[in-house]
Amino acid sequence: MPRLDLWVNTADWNKLGTEFQINTYYPADLSWNGETARNVGIRSRGRGSRSGSKPGLRVDFNRYASGQRFLGLKSLVLDNLTQDPSGIHETVAMALHARLGIPAPREIHTRLYVNNEYQGVYAIIESIDKDLLARVFGAIGDDHQNDGYLFEFKYQDDWRFANLGSSLEPYKIRFEARTHESTSDEDKYRPIETLVRLTNDTPAERITDTIGGLLDIPAFIRFVAAQAFLAETDGFVGAYGINNFYLYRLENQNVHAVIAWDADNAFWGPEFSLDLTWAGNVLIDKLMSVPE
User: Fold this and answer.
1) Last residue of a domain, one of 126, 157, 178
2) pLDDT score recorded for residue 45
C-alpha cells in the first residue's frame, strides 16, 4: 500500500484536530511517490465521518499557490474511512460503478503519515470537479464536455423526490452549485425544479417521454441498479431519503446525469432486498412501473 506524507505545523495540526467541525484551511506540504507539492491547503471534511482523532481531509493544491497542480489534480480527498471498519466499502463500490460505465471518482488506498507519524489507512479520492467531468464525459472534437452545471447534493431531511413547490430555495439548499456559482438561481435551479415537478405531475405511463429530455434515464437506472446490488443504504434510494451523489447538467443541454459519491455505507448485508428502500421515492416508483 503506497505511503502519503503531509508536513504540517504541529500547532496547526493540533488545532485542526480540536476544531475538526470547522472548515479552516491550514498550509502543508504533501509528498507522494517521491514527488512533493508545497504550500497546499488542507482542512477537515465530512459529515458523519468527521473526526478529531482521525480527521478526514480535503487537500487543495492551489489554495495558496495559484494554479498549482499535483499529478494533474487541483485537489483530492483523504477519506478517513471511519464509517467503514472494513476500509474497503468505498473503494470497491466505486470500482464497480466505474466498470459499469457510471461516472465515479478514481480511488486508491494509502497509508497516511503526518509529520512522519502514522495516522492510519485512508482512501485517496478524486475530487468531483471539471477535470473529472472532462475525463468521464469526454469531448466533442477539442471541446471537453465539462462546462455544464455541477451540483453536490446536501442532505437536509428525508426527501424522496417529492415536489417542493415552485420556490427555488428548497432546491438551492439541497443542490450546492460547484460550477457557474455566480449565475442566477433561475438558471441554476429552475431546470431541477422542473424535473422534480414533472416527475410528480406526470402519470407513470408517460413518465419516460416527459422527463427523458431532462434526465439520462438509462444511465440513472444503471446507477440505481448498482447501488441496489451493492446493498447501499445511504444512496439515492437511501433508508433515510436521497443522499450521496452529484448531479451534472450536461454542457449546453437540459439533460441531467448522476455521479456516484461516498459509498462508505454500501454492503449492508447479503440479504438486502432490491426494493427495500424504494418506498415513497417518487422518481423510482414511477420509473419502476415502466416495463423496460
Assistant:
1) 126
2) 94
Q: How many domains does the structure of the chain reveal? A: 2
User: Is 79 found in the same domain as 189?
Assistant: no
Residue 81 pLDDT > 80, yes or no?
yes
Q: How far apart are CA 283 and CA 288, in angstroms?
A: 9
Q: Which of 118, 117, 127, 112 is nearest to 3 (CA)?
A: 112
Question: What are the grid coordinates assigned to 280, written together?
Answer: 415513497
Structural domain of 196: 147-288
Neighbouring C-beta atoms of residue 164, cutoff 10 Å: 18
Q: Compute the distance between CA of residue 8 and CA of residue 14 in angstroms, rounded to an integer.
A: 10
Residues in the chain: 292
Q: What is the mean pLDDT of residues 218-232?
A: 94
Same domain, yes or no, for 60 and 188?
no
CA–CA–CA angle 278, 267, 55 (5° rounding):
110
Report angle CA 93, 290, 148 to the nearest 5 degrees.
Answer: 55
Whether 134 is in a domain gets the answer: no
Close Cβ partners of 135 (under 8 Å, ≥ 6 residues apart): none
The predicted structure's pLDDT at residue 171: 98
Name 28's bridge partners.
Answer: 8, 40
- 274: confidence class by pLDDT, cuts 50, 70, 90: confident
Whether residue 103 sits in one domain with residue 27: yes
